Amino acid sequence: LETEGDGARAALAKALAGAFETPLDREDMNDLSRQIDDLLDESRSIARLGRALKVTPEQNICEMVANLHEGVQHLRNALQSLPGKPDEADHMARKARRPLRLNQRLYSSGVAQLYEGEDIKNIFRQMELYHAVIRLSEAEESVADRLDHAIYKLT
Question: Cα separation of 103 and 109, whole Å?
């Protein structure tokens, strides 16, 4: 998926170079494509981290990842709504922020439960995953913020 994202970003850059008119400001499109690429890179890094640590993620981490997936779907829908339906795109971009709020709660409760345990190695491994997923949640929110900024300029 991350490799496909790199290819899509390169294709976007090439298309922008030859386009007279784009659905969003060129700078916004470039920034969004970079942030989305970073999001995909971080996702891949988390998967690699989980395999390297040889750990099965706790339930809260699995729920956090599911929330992120939902947020990505909202971002996708927002981007597909542009430029013709900026109000719908704005609504979807706002919905894409929801995972961070949910994930902050899951993070707090999960970490509190984790420290109730006695397996120190597992605690450290799970904490690495929690930190990585919350960073990814923040990155997803940044994409939603940037998209909101681009939509605001359209309206």
Answer: 10
